[in-house]
Amino acid sequence: AQKITQTQPGMFVQEKEAVTLDCTYDTSDPSYGLFWYKQPSSGEMIFLIYQGSYDQQNATEGRYSLNFQKARKSANLVISASQLGDSAMYFCAMRETGSSNTGKLIFGQGTTLQVKP
Amino acid sequence: DTGVSQDPRHKITKRGQNVTFRCDPISEHNRLYWYRQTLGQGPEFLTYFQNEAQLEKSRLLSDRFSAERPKGSFSTLEIQRTEQGDSAMYLCASSLLTGGRDRETQYFGPGTRLLVL
Fold first, then answer.
1. Which residues of chain B approach chain A closer than 8 Å at the C-beta?
2. Which residues, at least 6 apart from A56, have a Cβ–Cβ distance to it below 8 Å?
3. Which residues of B touch A33 (CB under 8 A)?
4. pLDDT, mean over chain B
5. Which of B47, B70, B75, B89 has the fewest Cβ atoms within 10 angstroms?
6. What three-state secondary structure class fits A58?
7. Average pLDDT in the A70-78 region?
8. Of the candidates A117, A105, A111, A114, which has an alpha carbon nearest to the alpha carbon of residue A33?
């Protein structure tokens, strides 16, 4: 069964430093997509970055990059040059895109990131 | 380009009452998803539509829950005979499914916070 695991309930980082948020996943489908979302205290889920299972290169979007290690089934989010506005809950999510046509996302438990000034 | 909107943002109701939530997706998005999120957890999939067809329902969606998407535009989620366990954030997301199914990205609304007393 597909599953997403985020083992860090909470993380602290100093402003302007880089931080890595961990995500491991489990699926038997060879084709899948991995997503990271940010959820500030206001509640809205904000899409950050996507990685496809067949992508050859790690995804990058501005200060966000995804450290994709397929053999280890991990998809860690790296935030460079942290800003105070990065303080939020971060969710890793997966969608299987092989045999099923489902679009549903399976989410992890989330990691709360606090950026210290 | 307006994002996904949800109404109401907050709802307080008494146990046993019926409630209805509305979601307006990003225009021209053909897929619409409903998720439920309880405090400290990641969102859980409830159901989704492609155009006006409801393609998948989670086992979380009991008989008291019903969702519609008439004419493939906005969607409503109704909960009948609410219970205290229904208290949660209800999130709506929309996406545009094109030929590249892998890269379908869901964009979320601000959510509706439901409290059942």
1. 31, 33, 35, 40-45, 48, 50, 55-56, 58, 89, 91, 93, 95, 97, 101-111, 113
2. none
3. 102-104
4. 92
5. B70
6. coil
7. 96
8. A105
